[in-house]
Design a protein that fits this description.
about 55 residues; mainly alpha; elongated
Length: about 55
């Protein structure tokens, strides 16, 4: 895995923290990875393309 640094509004990070605190995700990184996977899956559904050289983690 690669490390990525990004800026996210405080309110959004607080929402992610709530999801971690309630047990929906084990940590912030996994919550954000899940959001990225969902975004990619939605894009694939819209375009009909499924060209992923990486495995779902």
């Amino acid at each position: 895995m690669e490390r990525v640094t990004l800026r996210i509004p405080k309110q959004q990070i607080e929402e992610v923290e709530r999801m971690v605190d309630t047990g929906q995700f084990p940590n912030r990184s996994e919550a954000i990875r899940s959001a990225v996977r969902e975004m990619i899956n939605e894009q694939e559904t819209e375009t009909g393309e499924k060209n992923r050289p990486w495995a779902k983690v």
